[in-house]
Amino acid sequence: MSPVPLHQRIRGEIEDRIRSGDWPPGHRVPFETELMAQYGCARMTVSKAMAALVEAGLIVRRKRAGSFVARPRVHAPVLNIPDIQSAILARGETYAFRLLSRQTRSAARGHADERELAAGGKLLALDGVHDAGGRPFALERRLISLKIAPEAATADFSTLPPGAWLLDHVAWTEAESRISAINADPDVAALLDLDEGAACLVVDRRTWRAGEHVTRVRQVFPGEAYDLVARFGPGA
Question: Which PROSITE patterns does this UniProt record tie to the protein (predicted)?
């Protein structure tokens, strides 16, 4: 029987450590120079093993920082409104929400969408970061209509995520989601602990209750942390 090529053995041993939980999400994988010394091989051999792990979604590379065990992705149905907190807790990671700013204000001049949302009332503007396992998972920028959800004005969002609060307090009857991709600008990169220019997935969502606009939110996720799933079948 032919011996297993060294790059496959390196990949297999690292994968075993990841899948066993010995190396949890966010754990730094040894630098290539460290692996070269450990296995007594050339950089090309280690690079081949690392590239295969990246392709498999098991590790992510960050410029100037090294390679890290990837976080499991949140798989969200395209037609559903995911509860980020529940999804993170369900996969066994700690969850936290950090409120960055909170402001009650009028709709901005020249912004028809904000005027529609406010419907003659005030808006509650909330910026925050969802953390998973002690690392930033998603940046959230949300507007809530205080005419439709007046209780939000006094709700404590210092730890409770606004999305979870809305799901409990304001039943929605219609939703619209738009999915796009961006490269992280300096502000987003700093808040999500990413390299500037890193690929991010963006979900822009609006919800209504019986025709009345409830909230508008933009959520920005590191590209490796989130994907969207749609399952279809034959039908009219």
Answer: HTH_GNTR
